[in-house]
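User: Can you predict the 3D structure for this chain?
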Amino acid sequence: MMKKMDISTILASAIHESKNQVGTLLYQLQGLKDSLENKDGNQTKITLIEESLKKLNDEWVEYLYLYRLASDGYELHVDTFLMEEFLDDQVFALQPSATAKNLKLDYQCDASLTGIFDERLMTAVVSTAVYNALRFAKSKIVITAKMDENFLVIAVEDDGNGFNPAEESEDNLLDSNTGLGLYFAELSANAHIARETKGFIKKESSVNLGGASLCIYLPQ
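Assistant: Here is the predicted structure, written as structure tokens:
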């Protein structure tokens, strides 16, 4: 007789399988792109499909991490990173998605700034925040990093209309992908603890761009 499985384990397995399927589709789509000439009118359509699949793939990664964080099944792996290199990597990976929407994506930080954090989690958090900003930005998104007292602050800012006050309440937190993404960002920040101080997030207005700013505070 088969052992009864917990529904959360089944969901995690299903998400993992779906992520693998998306990965296969991306591989096949890249082969199709390579077979077409650069001037082929279908290139743009294929690129849009490809970016949508990449976003879906990143969302599956987020859901897997979210499950592990919520069930205390995630083991944090922290290291020290040069922030300029980390942010450059994020922009490089997400640039095609921004370009597909005719948006500019850039980063700003001090060249000597370093930070201690879990790279896998923060990569997922930044990509989730950027994908959300892509929905609302008018022309530009900037990822920044700085020190604020004993916290490393990574922020994703855009020049859209800012956060909707109607979405601020706890009741609306999980009503949209934005809410789920914020919950994931919060759990990821909370998982970072230094000197008994937990990380946290803040939703603010972007001083530089005038839109929304999601700030992730990580204790150092």
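The chain is about 50% helix and 25% strand. Confidence is low (pLDDT under 50) at residues 168-176.
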